[in-house]
Amino acid sequence: MSPALPALAAPAHAAASAPDDPTLPGFGNDPWWLIGGKVLVIFVFLVVMVLLTMWVERRVIGRMQLRVGPNRAGPQGLLQGLADGVKLALKEDIVPRKVDKVVFVLAPIVSAVPALISFIIIPFGPTVSVFGHHTALQGTDLPVAVLLVLAMSSMGVYGIVLAGWSSMSSYSLLGGLRASAQVISYEIAMGLSFVAVFLFAGSMSTSSIVNAQHDTWYVVLLLPSFLVYVVTMMGESNRIPFDLPEGEGELVAGFHTEYSSLKFAMFFLAEYVNLVTLSALATTMFLGGWRAPAPISTVWEGANHGWWPLLWFMVKIWLFIFFFIWLRGSLPRVRYDQLMKLGWKILMPFSLGWILLVATIKAFKNEGYDVQQITIWIVVAAAVVLVGSLAWEFLRGGGDGGGDKEIVPGIAPGRAPGGADAAAGGFPVPPMDAPHYHGRGIAPAEPPGPRTPADAAARPESSKEVTSGTH
């Protein structure tokens, strides 16, 4: 018995001496069974998180709206998400005629797979011992790991666009085009919000970014970047108040109107997996990742060792998920022009100015200047520019193209007397007397009032102008 004791105690001693903070060179050395186990655990974790998020969302919004929420399937309705999955799997899979069947089937896969891949670079915790092998609680890491998440987010929108295009439906196509415009707008602002983090951490590796926050979280040092990311992650998730690609009020369901059964379930899965991924990315980039909050980490020495960091990581994720749910139950859907204006005219210029500010401060600090005095002057100058831009926007009327337009009897709403476009600078309205109406056998709109004999001779009754073959 005695010779076996040192062999059994060796892994525990090695685990105690192993570094807790994972480093980039430490990845890629795990055995094949450990790598496969990590992938399986991450997949199961995402599926379980989707089911729990659906249940929490329904229960929380039910309480906010003074109703019960799901309470039949399982204790307190916990199995409601599983019951919905079984229901979707057993529903008839309807494929409309005239659709592009290959693209129609591939679109949900293209939307769901990138959402699952993104979570592979999220760190769950420090280095731990698993069956005698020291490994990080993270699938893998890359020198440009954060760019992988942005790339997968961009790839996921292809599934949405292809779903709308292949459905051969006007409403589905409009939803897909809205999704592409929205993701392009907010993907740029999201990438810009990460630049300041890269400057401070000196790396794009997620494990290195978490290690760089061992003293102070970036939500404190880079609060403007964090606020920009919070807004952009709501735009990336396609949820209220930014769910314009799925606006049920005007598009029925948007890009997945024609989908049913498991194909619809894959879009549903992709949405909630993206919700979890965005929350985990916010935790990693700005909230110290798996590290415990300051009061706990200072009082308890072992808070950031072993398996305890997994608890802090989960608490932070659920706080962000609750924030998503709270917004959905509180805010109405915004207008599409407001969505685009927020992305292009507010978030992007603000992010660029903030990056210049951070880069300037870092450069002066590296040269040995008094950073505190320089920071004060730069912040004052930035505040003056911001207040001036807001004042200019307020004085010019918000850029909505003026007030209400006068309605002239006999003139189409989108056209002013003399042929000028009355909607110039605002929302264009197709004129009612467009030439293509004649080609379809439809008479143009006539101004109200009595018809003179000259008008009757020059223009017969509109009911007689219908061409043959048009009913």
Automatic annotation (TrEMBL):
GO terms for molecular function: NADH dehydrogenase (quinone) (non-electrogenic) activity. Belongs to the complex I subunit 1 family. Keywords: Cell membrane, Membrane, NAD, Oxidoreductase, Quinone, Translocase, Transmembrane, Transmembrane helix, Ubiquinone. It catalyses: a quinone + NADH + 5 H(+)(in) = a quinol + NAD(+) + 4 H(+)(out). It is found in: Cell membrane; Membrane. It is a multi-pass membrane protein. It is an enzyme of class 7 (translocase). This is NADH-quinone oxidoreductase subunit H. The chain crosses the membrane at residues 33-56, 102-124, 144-165, 186-204, 216-235, 264-287, 307-326, 346-364, 376-395. The keyword rRNA-binding does not apply. Its EC number is 7.1.1.-. Pfam families: NADHdh. NDH-1 shuttles electrons from NADH, via FMN and iron-sulfur (Fe-S) centers, to quinones in the respiratory chain. The immediate electron acceptor for the enzyme in this species is believed to be ubiquinone. Couples the redox reaction to proton translocation (for every two electrons transferred, four hydrogen ions are translocated across the cytoplasmic membrane), and thus conserves the redox energy in a proton gradient. This subunit may bind ubiquinone. HAMAP family: NDH1_NuoH. NDH-1 is composed of 14 different subunits. Subunits NuoA, H, J, K, L, M, N constitute the membrane sector of the complex. Residues 433-471 are annotated as: Disordered. The keyword Transmembrane applies.
